[in-house]
Amino acid sequence: MRLFLGDLADREWLRQVLAEVRPDHVYHLAAQAAVPAAWASPGTTLTNNILGQLNLIEVLLELGLAPRLLVIGSADEYGLVQPHELPIRETNPLRPNNPYAVSKIAQDYLGYQYFLSHHLPIVRVRPFNHIGPRQGPGFVVPDFAKQIAEAEAGKHPPVLRVGNLTARRDFSDVRDIVHAYVLALERGEPGEVYNLGSEQSHSIREVLDTLLALSRVPVGVEPDPSRLRPSEVPELVSDCSRFRARTGWRPTYRFEDSLRDVLNYWRERVAREP
To answer: Rounded to an integer, what distance in angstroms lies between the CA atom of residue 204 and that of residue 164?
Structure first.
């Protein structure tokens, strides 16, 4: 295996790498993926996510390459979902309510456009929230786990700062999602789009309570207004029947086990820090 370090904004670098590798399969996951960061810098998020993918596709065309290409969208594309629309199917209207969601819709439909206009074998997926070891700060589960691990190590006051706890999200383990990506690219129908999720929703309060129950020290909870988003969807939960019918995929990791693995990862990471 060889690792190439570069920037999708650099078309010459991209051209050199793709010309050398000439891939049969491309998993395109390069993107700014945090909603808070998108609110803080919407222009950067839009430019990075849209132009990076556009460069990738255009350079493939310039080189005469047509690998199977997986475009990663997001459940955030659905945006302001109405209660009667749950669980969410791929045919649901897209009502983006943050800049990240807009960037992912653009990526999604860029993939569809190049499938239609250039017959590239592009498969699109819309993963719902996924969690697991090595997920960095900026997302709710590692943010909670990191604070608990630091409190256990005496490096942080035993108080967890939290935002909205009532929102409900469809959480899957990243290891299940990666397996789904492989199946999507191998067995998915080019031009199609597939939801990926657990088909169950859990409140952020459930996430918090589960992690607190695993804590080795008592930890308090304190509201933090800076963690609230300008626009919040009460609940997101997936209908993955289209993908299941195509591939047979089902999640295998339990919600509680994924949370425990995230917390243990942060315990190990905090212990290594000075």
So the answer is: 7
CA distance 121 to 123: 7
DSSP letters for 112-132: HHHHHHH---EEEEEE--EE-
Closest CA to 75 of 56, 100, 57: 100
The structure's pTM equals 0.94
Domain regions of the chain by residue span: 11-272
As a whole number of angstroms, the distance between CA 99 and CA 121 comes to: 28
Nearest Cα to Cα of residue 95 among 109, 72, 75, 112: 75
Q: Cα-flanking dihedrals φ and ψ of residue 70, to 5°?
A: -100, 120
Provide the CATH number for the domain formed by 11-272 in this structure: 3.40.50.720
pLDDT digits (tens, 9 = 90+) for 166-204: 999 999 999 999 999 999 999 999 999 999 999 999 999
Contact 30, 8 (CB under 8 A): yes
Best CA proximity match to 163, nearest among 179, 140, 184 = 140
pLDDT in tens, 87-135: 999 999 999 999 999 999 999 999 999 999 999 999 999 999 999 999 9
